[in-house]
Amino acid sequence: MWEDFSIIALTAALNSQPFVPGQVGATGIFHEEGVQSTTIKVEEQNGTLSIIEPTERGGPGVTIADDDRRLIPFEIDHFEINDSVKADEVQGVRLLGSTDQLETMQNRVDSKLERHARRLDATLEHQRVGAIKGIILSGKGKVLHNLYDRFGIAVPGAVSLGLDGDVSKLATAIKQNIVIPMEDALDEAYSGIHAWCGDQLHAYLWDQPEVRETYLAQSGGTLRDGAPDVFRFGQVTWERYRTGKKASAANGGAPFIAANEARLVPLGVPELFITRFAPADLEETVNTIGLPRYGHQYPMANGKGRHLDSQMNAISLCTKPGVLRKITI
What we know:
Elements: H1 7-15, H2 23-26, E1 30-34, E2 39-46, E3 68-75, E4 77-86, H3 87-90, H4 105-133, E5 135-137, E6 143-146, H5 147-151, E7 159-160, H6 170-186, E8 192-197, H7 199-206, H8 209-218, H9 220-224, E9 230-233, E10 236-240, H10 245-250, E11 261-267, E12 273-277, E13 294-299, E14 305-318, E15 325-328
Parallel strand pairs: 1-12, 7-15, 8-10
Antiparallel strand pairs: 2-3, 4-14, 5-6, 8-11, 9-10, 11-15, 12-14, 13-14
Helix pairs in contact: 1-4
């Protein structure tokens, strides 16, 4: 009977649970890949770009020095949920939604795996929000990875837009104070800029006369319905970030994105944001390519049930944190 609860079966079941998308992860900006080790190394290459001076034909050309390169190691974080399925849990218990069927061990395992998957998904989203901020924290506020310190760069200063009053030439201010500095820091081709906003900043921005006039010219119905969760203005797509009460409670009572701020990132840059999954710390998975989640079970010493563990070994990073921007009201 317990063949159905092998690590292969449990891991497959855990990874097939419906994904509960977080808004940052849902954009697809994080390049996901499994690795065989528990450490990854990010290569930093301080390349320079210069205009080549003309030289005489047939004579020597301009020499170019090699780029400075260094490898920065990051330990992949381990997240594990320990649970159990006891025989008495299903003894005489009616199957949820049924009037004449008893619950089975498989039903109880599946139910617990679904809860585990949701918690691991929330943890991954929290990690990715940390990556777009440049500082990745645990749910209790412990600093796991300070990308600015690791890359040896200063934290870009927050940009205040003065949204608590009417801002003149707001689109120009966004371009001059946000878009152009981000372009200079990135110094690569990109496809757009996305901002995840706290509730208050999102509302204040929408209420700006320049923003409302822009959308009034396009669709009066949009204004009647209030601020849309996603709108584009000033070469930036602004999206209201919804954390929810339960996730906020798990995050020390705070939303993932503070109400009075927004976090901005460039889009379309290969491997600017990465997520890497390491293998589980199990005999069966050593030196294999990591999967997003793992399930594992083993018998209780007293023979009265099974221990059920789920785990995720993941790290999410911004490989160029100097491009990240924080906007305040």
